[in-house]
Design goal:
Length: 493
């Protein structure tokens, strides 16, 4: 059940990721110009979370502005007030009742099925979040911010690049001590990303001394909050400065408060958590210092690959890299004895034939040059590790063939590859043909569709290009069902 629920939310997030979530501004940039608020939000549901945007899409609802006058009240405002007051008495957060919260609570209650899944997933993530929040002396209710940010999906990624349970942008993640490289993305690590979120939120709280404003700044950046405070005459009451904040943030904080209410009183509304096969208390961790692949574990134990992937989303290539300090691996408690018994034999087991991400044997210089030469055009979000994996070569080979010293590459960059003939021929053939076409004309460039891409997402990556432009240049595509790996022609501006 945990895997089904998790898979549902992964699909949920990836299929409908054309949302608008403000990522954190660096605390080193707190000027009013630190964030430019996009103006093209009219197509959205006027929400700021992954969660409500995705549930609307799944339910087949038209993405329009809510008419709050037609919302059905499932409880009286008085009942809401009494329950919110009971939460308010036990937290330094100000979650006092007001009519705005009535609207957001009722809005969420339209999606009881999805709420049940979120409440179920909270059994896996909330216990460790609470321990970390407590260690940093941060109100435990802040854990619900991760629900608003990512729908409790550690693989959630916004079109702006914010990633993980807490939706960190890369610069902020590194500023808060998270490691992101070709093998590991700690923004997806439930424990380490929560630690980073605590560091960031504590810094914000040191600035404002009010948790509601710290949460608002987490969404839109300190610069926008500072500006709103000045316009409100210096007030630090969220509800007084709310109208001066970006539209998305005006809804972000109330939605967080509404989620605090529903996670506490959901069952009073007939919302019950989906049962999972694994909860936090049924997992344990081991320290791994030498490189270890998931396939080496799964073929020597009864642990399923999906279980390892679900519990350890930070390992991008299903490979735990070498680390002197050791990397943590989360596994089910019931599998711990067999894991420890088989640990000595893991690294001797090498099922290379079955797993394309296994590094190939090193070829000689002559063997490499005898292979068919191809050109790969770097897409946004690509890293050398994933390119090497998909083409059956090593990172060092790509760097040597292209004179790359470090690991940084950029979208649009052309890489020369000498890939083995038996590795993903169809993919290489398609890439080569289109690369050749793009070189023969100055009118087009190409874009390879990634998981979760929509025409709107792709158009935003290219200045001056619209969704209609892409459809005109790519006759026959289904704009509502773009296939991952397909290649689109993009008009050059």
């Amino acid at each position: 059940m945990i895997l089904k629920s998790f898979k549902f939310l992964v699909i949920w997030v990836s299929l409908f990721s054309s949302f608008s979530v403000f990522a954190q501004d660096s605390l080193l940039q707190v000027s009013d110009s630190s964030l430019v608020v996009p103006e093209d939000f009219s197509y959205l549901y006027e929400v700021d979370s992954l969660w409500i945007q995705h549930t609307d899409s799944l339910a087949g609802l038209k993405v329009t502005k809510i008419d709050s006058s037609v919302l059905v009240m499932n409880e009286t405002s008085l009942t809401y007030k009494l329950r919110l007051d009971s939460i308010n008495e036990l937290t330094p957060l100000n979650i006092s009742h007001n009519p705005h919260l009535d609207r957001y609570i009722n809005e969420y209650l339209r999606y009881k099925h999805q709420l049940s899944k979120l409440m179920g997933l909270s059994k896996l993530y909330f216990p460790q979040m609470e321990a970390i929040l407590d260690k940093h002396d941060i109100p435990l209710e802040i854990k619900n911010l991760s629900v608003i940010e990512s729908a409790l999906n550690p693989n959630a990624r916004s079109y702006r690049g914010a990633t993980g349970l807490w939706q960190f942008m890369l610069p902020t993640a590194k500023e808060c001590g998270l490691v992101v490289n070709s093998y590991v993305d700690e923004r997806k690590d439930p424990t380490k990303s929560t630690e980073a979120a605590c560091i960031y939120l504590k810094r914000l709280y040191d600035i404002y001394g009010v948790w509601e404003l710290s949460i608002a700044a987490y969404n839109c950046g300190p610069g926008n909050v500072n500006k709103a405070i000045r316009k409100a005459g210096g007030s630090k009451n969220f509800w007084k400065i709310r109208s001066f904040l970006p539209r998305e943030t005006q809804k972000y904080v109330p939605r967080f408060m509404a989620m605090c209410y529903l996670m506490e009183f959901g069952e009073s509304h007939g919302v019950y958590p989906t049962e999972l096969d694994l909860t936090f208390w049924q997992t344990d961790t081991v320290v791994v210092k030498k490189a270890l692949r998931f396939d080496q574990i799964t073929e020597k134990t009864s642990i399923a690959t999906q279980t390892l992937t679900t519990l350890n989303p930070q390992y991008k290539l299903k490979v735990i890299p070498t680390s002197n300090e050791g990397n943590l691996l989360v596994i089910p408690v019931k599998n711990m004895p067999e894991f420890l018994d088989a640990e000595a034999s893991f690294r001797k087991h090498k099922p290379e034939e079955k797993h394309p991400y296994v590094k190939p044997a090193v070829a000689t210089y002559e063997e490499e040059r005898s292979r068919k030469k191809s050109t790969y055009i770097v897409r946004s979000g690509d890293v050398l590790g994933s390119i090497a994996q998909n083409n059956g070569v090593s990172v060092s080979q790509i760097k040597r063939w292209n004179g790359i010293r470090g690991t940084r590459i950029k979208a649009g960059q052309r890489l020369t590859l000498y890939a083995p003939e038996n590795i993903k021929k169809s993919t290489l053939k398609k890439t080569n043909v289109l690369s050749s076409n793009s070189e023969s004309t100055y009118n087009y460039t190409v874009h390879t569709v990634r998981k979760g891409d929509t025409l709107w997402d792709i158009a935003k990556l290219y200045s001056g290009v619209t969704s209609e432009d892409i459809k005109r240049l790519n006759q026959g595509i289904n704009p509502n069902n773009l296939k991952m790996g397909s290649v689109l022609r993009i008009k050059k501006i």
